[in-house]
Write a structure and sequence with these properties.
143 residues, 6 helices, 35% helix
């Protein structure tokens, strides 16, 4: 454009996974996990939510659909076919990073955008991840 200096980034694209919301959405975790073909899920949460029992509710809903969850077994064998994050942005982001780094091992900084990281594109698919946000904040569940 003549006489106008544009910022370097003027077009933004947001490609998102489906977002489910509304009363009772959490009750469908088991259904969604089964629909995605999960048989063994790794659940991420934080201490406060664990003390409140929310992850136990999620685990029960997964087990109703035949999806097993066992973090101790993960630590021994690293065998799981999907992830569930129950918590705020930090929990969800940690779960996403674990998904990335177990599917495509590399230093985390390789995947972070420049100038902080190297800006390497994710080289392939990741495991299915279901995010259950418990806070309204960063919108970590949408990226």
């Amino acid at each position: 454009m003549n006489g106008v200096t544009l910022p370097t980034e003027t077009v933004f694209v947001m490609e998102m996974s489906p977002i489910k919301f509304g009363l009772g959405a959490t009750d469908e975790i088991g259904f969604d996990a089964a629909r995605l073909g999960l048989r063994k899920a790794l659940i991420f949460t934080d201490r406060n939510l664990a003390a409140a029992g929310l992850p136990d509710r999620g685990r029960a809903l997964l087990e109703e659909q035949g999806v097993k969850e066992d973090a101790a077994e993960y630590a021994r064998t690293k065998e799981f076919d999907g992830l569930v994050a129950v918590g705020g942005g930090s929990t969800i982001d940690t779960c996403k990073a674990a998904n990335l780094l177990t599917c495509h091992p590399a230093p985390l900084l390789d995947y972070l955008n420049k100038p902080v990281g190297r800006g390497v594109a994710v080289p392939g698919p990741l495991r299915p991840l279901i995010a259950v946000p418990t806070t309204a904040g960063t919108g970590s569940e949408t990226t």
